[in-house]
Amino acid sequence: MPPLPSHRRLPSVPLESGEFTEVVLRGRLTDPDGPGRLMSRVETFVGHRVGASRWILLTDRRLLVVAPFPREGDWFDVVFDRREVTASRGIKHGDVITVELSTPHGRQVLRVPARLRTEAGRFIRALRR
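^ thats the sequence. predicted structure below, dont judge the formating
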């Protein structure tokens, strides 16, 4: 049985022509009213990430969440038009930074490790432009 692919490096995902990547993060995007709310509360309370994370790409046109096992024709789990997404300031809880996003599907929470603070700041500033 072949080993599972490594997720330490971003897989080469297809972008639209003329589209470029601005910010790349490794974290989790969840709906606070959905099934991820319990894990979100645990992570906020404990101050550490629990569970798997995904690659999150902010391009000049879209916000993309890469699928856990991307394959041809099924690269992204979530795709939002960047103009419809806004970000609040990040709040640090232990080793986790939470950023609330307003999206067309309602409120979403992005959680990234605190060691990615500079990238999270770039992500927030890019969405505020």
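Residues 21-128 form a domain with the PH-domain like fold (CATH 2.30.29.30).
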